[in-house]
Design a protein that fits this description.
Elements lengths: L1 H21 L3 H8 L3 H9 L6 H10 L18 E6 L6 E6 L10
Antiparallel strand pairs: 1-2
Helix pairs in contact: 2-3, 2-4
Amino acid sequence: MLLLLDRCAVIIDELVELRKAKGFTQRELAKVANLTQPAIARLESKVTIPRLDTLLRVAMALDYNIELVQQSLPPQNTLEYLFEDYSGGSFETKLVDLGEPVGNEQW
């Protein structure tokens, strides 16, 4: 879930920058996107994961599209993943490279 929130936050940050670059207030953007100003404020606060139609409406109101792009594959024989580690008393997100399996190890 953390990864999804992080990815949404990146998109939202970009939409906020585009809104500001166009000189729109939240109220003006809401009007063009056919949303309410509180909906734009909730989106920009990043408290919850926004609905896809909300993101699309805001992007279109700013003259942008949101597109699907295929992710590049990691290098051959390498597996990377994110996990949350609670060993230190607080959650920490780490990226781990497992490299090549050694011997007959099973995952």
